[in-house]
Amino acid sequence: MRYRIVGSIMPAVEMQLQAGESIYTQTGGMSWMSDGILMNTNARGGFMKGLGRMFTGESFFMTTYTSQRENAEIAFSSTVPGEILPLDLRKYGSMICQKGAFLCAQEQVTADAVFTKKLSSGLFGGEGFILQELRGNGMAFLEIDGNKVEKDLEPGEVIKVDTGNVAAFETSVSYDIEMVKGGMNMFLGGEGLFMTKLTGPGHVILQTQNFSEFVGRIKQYIPTRND
Hints:
Blueprint: E1 2-6, E2 12-17, E3 22-26, E4 30-33, E5 37-42, H1 47-55, E6 62-67, E7 72-77, E8 82-88, H2 89-92, E9 94-97, E10 102-106, E11 109-115, H3 119-124, E12 130-136, E13 139-145, E14 148-153, E15 158-162, E16 166-170, E17 174-179, H4 183-188, E18 194-199, E19 202-207, H5 211-219
Antiparallel strand pairs: 1-2, 2-7, 3-6, 3-10, 4-7, 5-6, 8-13, 9-12, 9-16, 10-13, 11-12, 14-19, 15-18, 16-19, 17-18
C-alpha cells in the first residue's frame, strides 16, 4: 500500500492498493475510489465487538474495501478540521485512542473498545469509560482535531492535559485524572474541575483543538426561537 495525505484544513488520505490488499473503515468513511475495488460491510468481529465500537464513537458496522487489481485508488476524508495522522503500529504495538479518532486501517490492525482502569478517569476524563485500542502489524490512520503535538515521555515523566486534548498514547503510558487545585482555579480558571494526567514511559499524541469545547462555543451564537 502507498498513501499520501492531500489537503490541509479538511484533509484526506489517498491510497493506492495492490491486488488483494484491503483497508477498512466505519460505514460512510470512504470519500472516493476507482474501479476494481470490492466493498463488503458487516459487523466486523461479531455483535459484541460492534457494540463496543458504538461506545467508542464508531459505527456498529464496518466496511472493508479490497482491491481486485493493481494500483486501485481509494480515499478517506476527515470529518472535522485538523490532520490525518498515519500510525505504524509495527513501531508501537498498540495505541489507546480517544473516541472517534479512528479513520481507517489495514486488515492486520484490530480496533477494540477498552475500559479505563479507574472509575475517576471514566467519570471525569472527558472520554467516558470506554476508549479504543488499536493493535497489530499494519498502518492505521487517525483523525486529529486541530494540529498534532507528539511527545515521548520518560519513565515517571508527567504531562497534564486539558480534557479533550488527548488524541492517543501508548499502552505503557499511565492514564489518570487529577483535580485542579485551588478554588479560584477550579471555578474561575476556565479549565474545568479536572485535568488528564499522563505518566511515562511512552509516546503521547496531543491535539490542539478540543472539539467538544469548540462546538460549545459555536452553540452560544446559534439563535434560538422563544416559544
